[in-house]
Design goal:
The protein is an all-alpha fold and 273 residues long. Helix 6 packs across helix 7 and helix 7 runs antiparallel to helix 9. Belongs to the binding-protein-dependent transport system permease family. It is found in: Cell membrane. Pfam families: BPD_transp_1. This is NitT/TauT family transport system permease protein.
Length: 273
């Protein structure tokens, strides 16, 4: 009897927590917070007599965002920026994953190469962006190189951490049973490292957006970064905020794509087992 009496409050607390922390409750709380922030954005600048060129009200930002005359420019420059992001992201992610596989497979190569990788990673990529402009010009290649570097290192470090974290006893067991190196990589190390790989991919996506905009700030002929600089030069703060909203939406969409891909791939891998 004493045992059952003791366990009832614990069970009740667990059920209560599950009810409170349901996805619907979290979505409602998030939307309520967003609504509060938007209302504050609309009215606080007026209440505090903040100049419009410093923080415009939300209505001015929405007017600039949905301006029919500006929409073609937004669309064209968004396509330019996203082409840079996706191209550099794809190259950087694939290169980082391949190099991580090689370094994990050959410890001697890892010991020799990895210190240089750390040294290169420690250099701010924004600082070398002007060099890429000099080497590759103001076109798309210089921007892609910046994005590649910013996507490459998160993928490399996270994937390498995942590969090197695989239990060596399992690797030895695969070898004893006659598994070839490629089978060890595809059937053991790669599935085990999937969480770290997708963590690196999420970081790579965020860095790619940053890299593309910074590269466009340094020197470009078109892109969302160019539009931001032009709006800044004209003191059109509402347009700057509108462009930042576009960038944030693009970043959220890319992040959601990665999260959905993570769930699908990991669920498929677990089912395949």
């Amino acid at each position: 009897m004493s045992t059952s009496v003791r366990t009832r409050p614990v069970t009740t607390r667990l059920v209560t927590r599950r009810v409170v922390n349901t996805p619907a409750k979290r979505v409602i709380a998030s939307l309520a917070l967003l609504g509060l922030l938007l209302v504050g954005w609309q009215f606080v600048p007026g209440w505090t007599n903040t100049p419009v060129y410093v923080v415009p009200p939300l209505s001015d930002v929405l007017k600039a965002l949905f301006d029919p005359n500006a929409f073609p420019r937004y669309l064209e420059n968004t396509a330019s920026t996203m082409s840079i992001v996706l191209t550099g992201l794809g190259i950087g992610v694939v290169a980082g994953l391949v190099l991580a596989i090689v370094l994990a497979q050959f410890p001697t190569v890892y010991a020799v190469v990895f210190p240089y990788i750390v040294a290169i990673e420690s250099i701010p990529k924004v600082a070398v962006a002007p060099l890429f402009i000099i080497w590759f010009g103001f076109g798309m290649p210089s921007k892609v190189v910046v994005v590649v570097l910013l996507a490459f290192f998160p993928m490399l470090v996270n994937a390498l951490h995942g590969f090197r974290g695989v239990d060596r006893d399992q690797v030895d067991l695969f070898r004893v049973n006659g598994a070839k190196p490629l089978q060890i990589q595809t059937r053991l190390m790669l599935p085990a490292a999937l969480p770290q790989i997708f963590s690196g991919l999420e970081l790579a996506v965020a860095n790619s957006m940053i890299g593309a905009i910074v590269a466009e700030f340094v020197g470009a002929q078109k892109g969302l970064g160019v539009l931001i600089l032009q709006a800044q030069g004209r003191m059109e703060t509402a347009a700057v905020f509108a462009l930042l909203i576009i960038l944030s939406v693009l970043g959220i969409v890319l992040n959601l794509v990665v999260r959905v891909l993570r769930r699908v791939v990991i669920r498929w891998e677990m089912t395949a087992r």
